[in-house]
Amino acid sequence: MRNTAPDRPELAISVLREPISSPRSKRLVNHLRAYRLHASRPLHVAPSRSSAHRFAIIEDELEAINKRLSQLPTRNEVWRAAMLGMLSGAVAAVTLIEAFARACP
């Protein structure tokens, strides 16, 4: 069955240009009546054990994610490690350059 839902306004507008006796117009009218009847029914959610179980599973997963996130290094720790690496590399480069400069006159 083709979708004649109101979420396709171009279809509704094209159907409005047709005579009311056309099959497309009748399908749209029937669909809108069914939609109106469906929308007029009150919605109620019955509590179930499965929803509580799902929430418990989600809570456990969030706790595991939070635990893993807490083990990641902070920005300050990452910055210190990067600066220490750059300074160590610079000292090693200068030391090697000076050693080769003295060894090769």
Mean pLDDT: 77
Give me the strand/helix succession: HHHH
Radius of gyration: 35 Å
User: How many H/I helical runs?
Assistant: 4
Main sheet makeup: none
Shape: elongated
Q: What structural category arises from helix and sheet content?
A: mainly alpha
Task: Set out the fold topology.
Layout: H1 9-16, H2 23-40, H3 49-70, H4 75-103
Question: How would you explain this protein's 3D organization?
Answer:
The longest helix is centred in the C-terminal third of the chain and has 29 residues, at about 75-105. By secondary structure, this protein is mostly helical. Among the domains are: about 10-40, no CATH class; about 75-105. The model has no long low-confidence stretch (mean pLDDT about 75). The N and C termini lie far apart (about 90 Å). Helices cover about 75% and strands about 0% of the residues. The chain contains four helices and no strands.
